[in-house]
């Protein structure tokens, strides 16, 4: 089995450890500048890292939920389900001097692929 790999994101601003078999979608089709998109050829799952604009009217855990649900709405998601939202320890982040809090949201969205219907 192929090992996980450390992959630079957004020109090296930060990185993520990707699962075995992850394919960079930007090698296949255009991807917006505010996104990094990876897919898995066997499981048909995608990982999308998206830079989002600060929304001052929501904070903390509510902000994580807001953005996840907003992205689902923009993508025309048929279903948006938050599984969990957990705070990240700022000491472990390279952005620790730039943010007051950070959150990890795990969820599922059912979104049709390009030119497909759900």
From TrEMBL:
Keywords: Protein transport, Transport. The keyword Protein transport applies. It comes from the Eukaryota. Signal peptide: none annotated. Belongs to the MOG1 family. This is Ran guanine nucleotide release factor isoform X2. The gene is Rangrf.
